[in-house]
Specification:
Elements lengths: L6 E6 L14 H16 L3 E6 L7 H5 L5 H25 L4 E5 L8 E2 L2 H9 L3 E5 L9 H11 L4 E6 L21 E3 H6 L7 H9 L4 E5 L5 H6 L6 E4 L11
Parallel strand pairs: 1-2, 1-6, 2-5, 3-4, 3-5, 6-8, 7-9
Antiparallel strand pairs: 8-9
């Protein structure tokens, strides 16, 4: 996987924006993430971002308290829009040109998601932020990230995890001797029930031969290095070597 990507999508969880806070957004953290993305864009890499909303709201968890699941998920989509607007502001402050597109209609603050317009923004060197997931309840932002990455023809999906530097055979925060994988195939990840992403998102990536790179967002220059194609974290792809399967 050596060499910078031409176009890649970064999946940022809402928790990645919290830093060491228990809730919300940490100003220093979002500034650092923005600087890394802007630096990659300055070097000619086309960057799209899908941001989650777990630092404010997690629909599946709220639904367990008795709230209607669909309603809880729609509220979660609003949380992702809040995060996208905060990230947009931080990126613009470090010199990036940004466009935010949402899967829910919110014309006063962002563009609607239009695939061809998003691709044109990327071609012009703009960072494109995709918010509100897929616009559908019961669908995670992991699924939105896989879907958007495939739709706008990204070369890789970069899963920026919060404090976990790859895919392990067990939870490294609970199992001290858990082993981290360097490379995995999609089938291995599914068969081992490894927590790469939700199964719908993983299946989408497998069917479309989209490589997934799982790395720690807290690592020094983690996002920038991942976008540059440096070997960080775990690669999940069609081939055991971690390289994309040849296209026919």
């Amino acid at each position: 996987m050596a060499g910078a990507y031409r176009r890649a999508l970064v999946k940022l969880s809402g928790e990645a924006l919290m830093g060491d806070r228990a809730f919300g957004i940490d100003a220093g953290t979002i500034e650092n993430l923005s600087q890394q993305i802007a630096r990659a864009c300055d070097e000619g890499i086309q960057v799209a971002v899908v941001v989650g909303g777990g630092n404010f709201w997690r629909g599946s968890t709220i639904a367990e308290t008795g709230m209607d699941r669909a309603t809880a998920d729609y509220a979660g989509m609003l949380a992702t829009i809040m995060n996208a607007l905060a990230l947009q502001d931080a990126l613009e402050k470090v010199g990036a040109v940004v466009r935010t597109q949402t899967a829910l209609s919110m014309a006063q603050v962002a563009e609607p998601y239009i695939r061809r317009r998003a691709m044109r923004h990327l071609e012009k060197g703009r960072v494109v932020l995709f918010a509100a997931g897929t616009g559908n309840p019961y669908m995670t932002t992991d699924t939105a990230a896989a879907l958007r990455a495939i739709e706008v023809e990204c070369e890789a999906l970069l899963m920026a995890k919060n404090g976990v530097d790859g895919v392990y055979d067990a939870d490294p925060r609970r199992v001290p001797d858990a082993v981290r994988f360097e490379h995995l195939t999609y089938i291995e990840a599914i068969q081992r029930r490894l927590q790469v992403m939700d199964s719908t998102a993983l299946s989408l990536c497998m069917e479309n031969h989209l490589p997934i790179i799982v790395f720690d967002v807290r690592a020094p220059d983690g996002i920038y290095r991942a976008l540059k194609g440096d070997h960080v974290g775990t690669v999940v792809s069609s081939s055991p070597s971690g390289k994309p399967a040849p296209t026919t």
